[in-house]
Amino acid sequence: MADTQRDEGSAIGGFSILALFRRPETGAAAGFILIFLFFGYFGWERNFLTALGSSTWLNFASKVGIIAIPIGFLMIAGELDISVGALIPAGGIVLAMSVELFGMNIWLGVLVGLLVAGLIGYVNGMLVTRTNVPSLIVTLATLFVVAGLNAYVSKQLAGTTQHSLQDVGAVSEFVLGDYHSLVLGSDENKVTIFRSLQSSFFIWIVFAIACFYILHVAPWGNWIFAMGGDEESARNAGIPTNRLKIALFMLSAMAAALVGMTEAVLANTASTTTQFGMIFNTIICVVVGGVLLTGGFGTVAGTIFGTLTFGIVFQGINFTTFDKDLNLLFIGALLLVAVLMNDTFRNLATSASTTRKK
Amino acid sequence: MPESASVLEMRGVDKSFGPIDVLHEISLKVNEGEVLCLLGDNGAGKSTLIKTLSGVHQPTRGEMLMDGKPVNFVRPKDAQDMGIATVHQFGGTYPLMSIGRNFFAGAEPTRGWGPFKVFDRRKANAIAVEQVRKFGITGIDDGDRLVGGLSGGERQSLAIARAVYFGARVLILDEPTAALGVKQAAHVLRIVNEAKRRGLAVVFITHQVMHAMAVGDHFTVLIRGAIAADFRKGEKTREEIADLMAGGESMADLEADIEGYMETHEGHPPPPVH
User: Fold this and answer.
1) Tens digit of each residue's pLDDT (9 = 90 or more) over A272-286
2) Which helix (H) or strand (E) holds A231?
3) Which helix (H) or strand (E) holds B110?
4) Residues 6+ apart with CB under 8 A from B232
5) What is the pLDDT averaged over residues A344-351?
6) With an 8 Å Cβ cutoff, are B101 and A225 in contact?
7) DSSP result, A167-204
8) Kind and range of the H or E run holding B119
9) For chain B, N or C: smaller number of CB within 10 Å?
10) Which residues of chain B neighbour A351 with C-beta distances below 8 Å?
11) What is the pLDDT of residues B258-269, one digit of tens each?
12) How many CB atoms lie within 10 A of CB A242?
């Protein structure tokens, strides 16, 4: 006993490194730093590190990131949601039609968009919990159903699949879809903090903080982890697994719709085109971020690092002298390396501190 | 020895699934501070019996009593609310969650107010480590450790300590030592003894006679869904119990057969008969 005490005292330095390795997001953070340095070096000549250059990949990352966090929640809970590919355009066109066609206030339109998305998420959740059909198949089905509805309803109501959405208010533009810059100081020694960041980037920050609270601070996070770790045991422990799962599907659907709405407000148009690419993008971000595909493990911070890494790799090639055709190859390699690295870190995490056992 | 109060009792319980009778006329009793060992070979109906005790299945006939009063468990939750905790092999533990989070899954301690509740990690870790250590698992001193890094015996102990902490009165342990090494199994048996010492009624399901003999006060042998034997500690030897479990075929006879065969066949064991 006395020995153990002394060990703890003398091993403070070693222990803090061990504690760092035990953090699940360490792998994702290390990957991000490596990728950042890599592109920082090769993209130096072409302004990768300037405020404007950073905005290029941050803006892209923010849209993927807003959806990736709830997708990460679902993956931690042992589920997948690929219907987001159709929910992004659904959010945009519902908002556009609410405002342009039905003359609603923009905020009411946003609410309608979120409600519609929430309903679709609810259907996803109900189907998954009631039928025990794997969520991959259920959401694959709803992906196509919603994609079909997007086109059909658009044509029936508005006669087009391309909706326009005029600027309707300074506040809504500012919050949902605009470019923001912050420059400090006067002409001679001004410092650009950020330049041309889209509203979605700030929405991402706020949303990420809220999600961090849900998963890591509030007791619900424990339920999500437990459900993904062993659903039967979680149910036995009194966790309302079905309701929780439905709520998570609603969250991912609403996040996707929100992204569609910010895009619509920014571009002043909304299209019914299904964003199949985003399905893969979000899953890659989550997996690169260290979330275990089979559930039970993952963090919000990891997903954010994964999204940032993905954003850099996806956009960063434009800042380097590499051939742009190599872009997808880079992403594939990133995914493989990240998964292998995360496996290593997870093994370190499970075995961590067993070394302290006497 | 004074007769202690019976906590959970089954009287003439039958369970059939359609035309198939799985349990037949099961009567058993488990008392406070006693370990009832449920012995049986694979397929003897042990799992069905546990599931009936823990409210997953309802008896087709017969009745169940708790503290002498008839009870009817419609869902596992009903049994849990009455203080019946079932610990399956590794069940109730999540490998990639910390010890503190595991311990309080579904009943998290919180700080803060209103909608801004905060999971009290410090408190959860402290209580979890304290409770597990009380059960003699002194190797655990860090509540942030992931359960996947613990040994099988430690995980079992964590699950049992958790059940006891949350007010279990009857502890149903489903093959807790089956997949464990000798040392780990001894670990779990110590925990079972500790639970007994604390006055819990323990139902210990196993097919390892040695483990049963180490902790059991009362033994029930199940064969093809019916009770084949029911006896108290010290009334039967290990060989007798093993014979009972094998369905009456004497292990000693079997051994003699094999030895006889080997003597006449240059030391080769007999080929399997099927």
Assistant:
1) 999 999 999 999 999
2) helix A231-236
3) strand B110-111
4) B217, B218, B219
5) 74
6) yes
7) ---HHHHHHHS-EEEEEES-STT-EEEEEEEEHHHHHH
8) strand B118-119
9) C
10) 149
11) 778 777 777 777
12) 16
- Give which of A69, A30, A36 is closest to A210, Cα–Cα: A69
| pTM for this prediction | 0.83
- Between A2-10 and A12-22, two packed helices, what is the crossing angle to 10 degrees? 80
Task: Evaluate whether B165 touches B127 at the Cβ level (below 8 Å).
Answer: yes
| Per-residue pLDDT reduced to its tens digit, A26-76 | 888 888 998 899 888 888 888 888 888 888 899 999 999 999 999 999 999
Residues from chain B contacting residue A230 (CB–CB below 8 Å): 91-94
Instruction: Give me the torsion for CA of B12, B16, B20, B21, rounded to 10°.
Output: -10
Query: How is residue A217 annotated by DSSP?
Result: I
Domain presence at residue A223: yes
Q: Is the four-CA dihedral A50, A55, A60, A62 of positive or negative sign?
A: positive
Q: Is there a contact between B42 and B102 (Cβ–Cβ < 8 Å)?
A: no
B146·A352 Cβ contact <8 A: yes
DSSP designation for A317: G
Which of A221, A226, A353 has its CB closest to that of B145? Answer: A353
Of B167, B161, B206, nearest to B35 by C-alpha is B206
Report how far apart, in Å, the C-alpha atoms of A69 and of each of A3, A74, A92, A204 are. Answer: 44, 9, 20, 10
* A283 falls within a domain: yes
Assembly ipTM: 0.76
Question: B20 with B4: CB under 8 angstroms?
Answer: no
Asked whether the beta carbons of residue A223 and residue B146 sit closer than 8 angstroms, the reply is no
| Number of inter-chain CB pairs under 8 A, A vs B | 91
Task: Look up the CATH number of the domain holding residue A126.
Answer: 1.10.3470
Q: For A125, phi and psi rounded to 5 degrees?
A: -65, -45
- The shortest C-alpha distance from A3 to chain B (Å) reads 13
Give the residue among A106, A138, A142 at the shortest CA–CA distance from A274. A142
Question: Which string of b and e fits A280-303 if b means at least 16 CB within 10 Å?
Answer: ebbbbbbbbbbbbeebbbbbbbbb
pLDDT digits (tens, 9 = 90+) for B108-151: 888 877 777 888 888 999 999 888 888 877 778 888 888 888 88
CA gap B116, A247 in Å, rounded: 18
Query: Is residue A81 in some structural domain?
Result: yes
Whether the CB of A296 is below 8 Å from some CB of chain B: the reply is yes
Q: Are A46 and A319 in contact (CB under 8 A)?
A: yes
Spatial separation of the C-alpha atoms in residues B217 and B232, rounded to whole Å: 6
Among A219, A297, A349, beta carbon nearest to B117:
A219
CA of A15, closest CA in chain B: separation in Å? Answer: 12
Tell me, what DSSP letter sits at residue B268?
Answer: P
> Are the C-beta atoms of B189 and B224 separated by less than 8 Å?
no
Ranges assigned E (strand) in chain A: 162-164, 179-184, 191-198, 269-271
Map out the domains of chain B with their CATH numbers. 6-97+168-236 (3.40.50.300), 238-274 (no CATH)
- Residue A72 domain boundaries: 24-350
Task: Indicate yes or no: CB of B108 within 8 angstroms of CB of A219.
Answer: yes
Torsion sign over Cα B262, B265, B269, B273: negative
Residue A17 resides in a domain: no
User: Using the beta-carbon criterion (under 8 Å), do A233 and B108 form an inter-chain contact?
Assistant: no
* Cα A167 to the center of its chain, rounded Å: 27
Q: Residue B97 half-sphere exposure, CB side, CA atoms within 13 Å? A: 33
